[in-house]
Amino acid sequence: MKHILKLAAVILVSINLSSCSDDFLKSEPMTQLTSANFYKTPEDLYMALVGCYQQLRGGYGDFFQILNIAADDCYGGGGYTDAYGNQIWDEFTHYNDLEINRYSWSSKVWRAIRRCNVVIEQAENIDWGTNAKLKNQYVAEARMLRAYWYFITQACFGHIPLVTTSEQLEIEGQTDPDDVYAYIAEDLKFAVENLPANRFQDISKGEIGRVTKWFAQGFAARVYLFYTGYYGKSEMPGMTKAQVTGYLNDIITSSGHTLLPSFSSLWPWSMRKDYWSKQSLYVGTTNLVYAGEYNPEIIFAIKLHTGFSFSHSQYMGMRGEKKAGDYDPFTSGWGMATITPKAYNWFEEGDTRRFASIVNLAAEGIPCDGTDQREFTGYVHKKYQNLTSPIDRTKGYPQYLGASNKNANPQDQYIMRYSDILLMAAELVVDTNPAQALNYVNQVRNRAFENTSHALKSVTKQDILDERAREFVFEALRYHDVLRQGLTKAKQILDVHGEIVLNGKNPTTKTIDWPIEKEGLFMIPYSDVSLSNGKLLQNPGW
């Protein structure tokens, strides 16, 4: 899939997909090269499909950033004198920035959905010859990506338009959530039926990074669990519990995906033996080897390279490095999304995931002290922390690979891992087959401790949710896992009562009175609401 992303820049320039309007539905006009006159061959449509995948790459205000900050494993962070942008996501307050979500809402979502709609529509204009299977695959990929965007947008904003064609340029109003979820369900079912079902071991390296049947099945379960939890329903429009349970069983028995033996090997820091082997906090195998980005645990990841980097490593890297190399084996960044002490304390002794997921700055001897930091806690994320070069500690690992700057981090962004499949499957059967649920949870726990001495004897739904919190720290899953426990429970979890943080090295109390009346939904950008002539209504409480 990396070859697809490399093509994206050239393709997108050629088809002129640039923003030229304040109306988010008109932000990506279709030029002559995106008309029915252009799409004549499967190769033409492949170019458009590349554009759909390209839109997955994130930037400031991306869902990965805002969902991590909104959850209870991160605070907003950032620079001590920065504007209070991150704190809007963290505390659900205004702070006078009414446009904070424009990147995700306007520049990202509707452009991505339009690109998917173009592929789906124009597939009908292509001469496929005898290759109808390829047509169905391309359409299924576009529909899977469209379902991805619709779900994450619906879950974050709650009341959204349903834009079903690329020709729709006017807002027609917000759609009932049940209708949005029914639409998502239809896309997912089509994707399950038409995407490749090759076992992981049989997928060529060049094809890894494209959505598969296994990702569609796993994503269906993610959508189902959120809908039924958040809305308090027993079933989801267009999709049943039996269906999604069957989907997960199919992944477990047929996909070839599996857990890696070591959780730590998932993350690039594991390649730096000169770092972890000297740390007293490290627990786990003495033969730790980085598994790389092509491994059987990854159900789906946004594939990146030094040309299209994971920019969040810069946004959320350690702040205030006095000189290059001080934070070795990590490099510096802007200090957003500081890890909460609460999240650090979720882990039992011996759980390899704590060291693998979180940098304990003082204990690891890294001289990041919060001099220029807001909401400094002494803890930062580790999974996506950018590394230094193994041969020149003053440079970043991307530069070692040939990038022009240290923040061009080529690390893939994981969207779904096999451990998620096991824990979702456990949650779905915990009431009807508790023994099977216990087996799935203990597979995750045994891997986390690299032994069986911490295996549970019985398991509840709350145990599973707690296990998810530890397994997916800083992977942007926690916030929606919290919301689907109900708003009253969410407030109990997300409220913060006078925790001590450092702002510019000055002790300050951090308090969050999470506003339950906002229903966990983010604010729709003010300008889009005001320019919609009453067709867009702001979310409650904002």
Structure characteristics:
single chain, 542 residues, mainly alpha, two-stranded antiparallel ribbon, disordered N terminus
**Helix content percent band:** 40-55%
Q: What's the overall average pLDDT, rounded?
A: 92
Strand content: 5-15%
User: Strand order within the widest sheet?
Assistant: 1-4
**What distance separates the N and C termini?**
40 Å
The run of helices and strands is: HHHHHHHHHHEHHHEEHEHHHHHEEH
Query: How many DSSP helices?
Result: 20
Ranges where pLDDT stays below 50 over 5 or more residues in a row are 1-22
What's the β-strand tally?
6
Described by strand count, sense and barrel closure, the largest sheet is: 2 strands, antiparallel
At a glance:
The protein is mainly alpha-helical and 542 residues long.
Topology:
Layout: H1 2-14, H2 42-54, H3 63-70, H4 86-91, H5 102-122, H6 132-157, H7 177-194, H8 213-230, H9 241-254, H10 273-276, E1 298-302, H11 312-315, H12 341-344, H13 352-357, E2 358-360, E3 379-381, H14 397-400, E4 413-417, H15 418-429, H16 434-449, H17 461-471, H18 478-483, H19 487-494, E5 496-503, E6 506-512, H20 526-530
Antiparallel strand pairs: 1-4, 2-3, 5-6
Helix pairs in contact: 1-2, 2-5, 2-6, 5-6, 6-7, 6-8, 7-8, 8-9, 8-15, 9-15, 15-16, 15-17
